[in-house]
Specification:
The chain is an all-alpha fold. Helices cover 53% and strands 0% of the residues. The protein is built from twelve helices and no strands. Helix 1 runs parallel beside helix 3 (67-78), helix 1 (33-47) packs across helix 4 and helix 3 (67-78) crosses helix 4. It comes from Frankliniella fusca. This is tRNA (Guanine-N(1)-)-methyltransferase.
Length: 290
C-alpha cells in the first residue's frame, strides 16, 4: 500500500505528542523536497493535524537505498489508516523517536566532530524499545560504532560546549602524545561514561596538526572553539549505499561494479561543486524563482 499512499484520504489518526523534532531545522528551503517532506509529515503525525497542502504533497519514490523516502511513505500511509495495528504504530513511533530527529541532527551537524554525539543520541533514543527489539537495534549500533573509538570520542569532547569536558579531553590527548613520543602507553583517568583505563588512547588524526598550546587554550575558554581541521563529514554511509546499489542494478560482476563505482567517483571529482541550488543556477546565468 505504500506505493500509492499519497492518493489515500487522510483519516483520523492517533498523534505522538511526546515525540519531538530537533530545533536545528529553521528554514525548510535549505532541505531537498524529500527532506522537507520528512520534516512536515513528522510534524503532522506528532501533532495529530494534517494541513490540506501537506496531504497533497508527494512523499517521494520508494527506493531500496533511500530510507528517507521509505519513512516518508510509512508516515503518509499512517495518517490514512484509521485503525493501525500495534506493529504499525511501533514502526511509526520509532521513526518519530529515533529516525527523524537523528536524521535532522546529522543533517545540520554533519562534521566528524559531531559523530560521537550522534552515536550517543542513537543509543539514548532507542532505550525505550522492549528488550527483544532493543537487542536487534543494539546489534546494528555495535556493527556501526566507528564513532565509539576513543579518538573520535576525544574529538567530540574537544569540541564540546562545556569547558570541563574539553579539559578532560585535552588531558587525555596530551597524555597520548607524550606516550607516543616515549613509545609507552599513557595513563588516563576514568570517565564514568567510558572506561578509559581499558583502552590504549590515541590522538584523533584530525587534531594531529593542532599544537599543544592550542589544545590547552581551547580547553580553558568559555566558548566552544571553531577548529580549523579537515572537514570530514560523519554521514557518508547513505551516499555509499546508494552508489553501490546503483552499480549492482546496472552492471554484473564484482569487477564491473568496482569499475562503475570508481568511474562515477572520478567523474564527480571533475564536476564543479555548488553549495546551494542558487549557486548552480547562477553559474548558468539563471536566478531561482523560489
Amino acid at each position: 500500500m505504500t506505493y500509492y499512499c499519497e492518493k489515500l484520504p487522510v483519516a483520523k489518526f492517533v498523534s505522538f505528542p511526546n515525540c519531538k523534532l530537533p530545533g536545528e531545522v529553521i528554514n525548510l528551503s535549505h532541505l531537498s523536497t524529500d527532506q522537507s517532506y520528512l520534516y512536515k509529515i513528522s510534524e503532522v503525525v506528532i501533532s495529530g493535524h494534517c494541513p490540506p497542502d501537506v496531504a497533497l504533497l508527494d512523499p517521494g519514490t520508494l527506493c531500496k537505498s533511500r530510507w528517507l523516502t521509505c519513512a516518508n511513505r510509512i508516515l503518509r500511509l499512517y495518517i490514512s489508516t484509521p485503525k493501525p495495528n500495534l506493529k504499525f504504530q511501533s514502526i511509526v513511533k520509532y521513526i518519530l523517536t529515533v529516525y527523524s530527529p537523528l536524521w535532522f541532527k546529522i543533517r545540520f551537524n554533519n562534521s566528524i566532530k559531531d559523530g560521537s554525539r550522534h552515536l550517543f543520541d542513537t543509543i539514548q533514543s532507542t532505550r525505550y524499545l522492549p528488550p527483544n527489539l532493543r537487542k536487534v537495534v543494539d546489534a546494528s549500533i555495535q556493527q556501526n560504532a566507528y564513532f565509539a573509538f576513543p579518538e573520535n570520542i576525544l574529538l567530540s569532547m574537544m569540541t564540546d560546549e562545556q569547558p570541563g569536558v574539553r579539559k578532560l579531553a585535552m588531558d587525555r590527548i596530551l597524555a597520548a602524545r607524550e606516550a607516543e613520543s616515549e613509545k609507552t602507553k599513557g595513563t588516563v583517568r576514568y570517565l564514568p561514561q567510558y572506561d578509559w583505563t581499558s583502552v590504549a588512547i590515541t590522538v584523533p588524526p584530525v587534531l594531529r596538526d593542532i599544537s599543544n598550546a592550542e589544545l590547552i587554550s581551547s580547553s580553558t575558554q568559555d566558548t566552544t572553539v571553531e577548529w580549523d581541521f579537515i572537514k570530514f563529514p560523519c554521514h557518508t554511509v547513505a551516499r555509499t549505499v546508494k552508489l553501490v546499489t546503483e552499480a549492482a542494478s546496472l552492471v554484473c560482476g564484482p569487477e564491473a561494479r568496482d569499475g562503475h563505482i570508481r568511474a562515477t567517483l572520478k567523474s564527480r571529482e571533475q564536476l564543479p561543486k555548488y553549495a546551494t541550488k542558487k549557486d548552480f543556477l547562477k553559474s548558468f546565468g539563471l536566478e531561482s524563482t523560489h
